[in-house]
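Whether sequence alone determines local backbone shape is best considered at the level of individual chains. When preparing material for the folding task, we compiled for one chain both its residues and its backbone structure tokens. The sequence in question and its structure tokens are set out directly beneath this paragraph.
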Amino acid sequence: MNEYPTIEAIIGNTPVVALQRINPNSSNTILLKLEGQNPAGSVKDRPALNMIAQAERRGDIQPGDSLIEATSGNTGIALAMAAAIKGYTMHLIMPDNMSQERKSAMSAYGAVLHLVSKEEGMERARDLALEMQAQGKGKVLNQFGNDDNPAAHYSSTGPEIWQQTQGTVTHFVSSMGTTGTIMGISKYLKEQNSEVQIVGLQPAEGSSIPGIRRWPKEYLPTIFDESRVDQVMDINQEEAEITMRRLAKEEGIFCGVSSGGAVSAALRLSETLENAVIVAIICDRGDRYLSTGVFND
């Protein structure tokens, strides 16, 4: 009998594609890693499955248990999928201003949603997750402090980028939320070539970009190590949204706002560099933002 893959087997191995029209400097190559090609639609599929699989391996959880996580969206959808694959009840806590598509996708996978107000934000969501765990309602996976989050990118995303660029990558650009993506990829790429420049993005003061954060010091993810990021750039919300719309209209690449921010940063870098190979993470697809109106000029 033939052995066929299950859905978890197709997480990862996402393609990279080159920008064709909006690169300001033709001596540079800007490559976009299309993480929206993952089955639940984002880069978070990788750590979501790994956090659950590794907790199982250690005996921390067993199928049938309840899991809890605070999320701004993509991790929640990915965890809802991973929990469905593995047989867990998933409780997700998120601010109520996240897009309806995100909420609906989590529910479709069978997750139980708990909403906090926009004003309370992710800080309150994270606190509530710990309160629910203390009340015996499940186990918090804690993407913000769980080494299995960056480990997923160290073992998969980083090696893929190195192989896909044949070791020529000079700059890596990623939005920062939990910081798992940039931490894992930075560790791997720096081990291959310490000269690779790692550029992290945070929202400019007053900007609200789903999935990336400017954390208060007391909530800074404990998996974050600032020594692994060579440069931090502030991204303005309007700039990110304009670039996101340009990617759809001029490149045929349909992605979310934080991805627009990552490409905006890559374009800024390209203006100052020569003969560089810049890789940016396109962390999700644009269809989960349609109801917010961000694609309307």
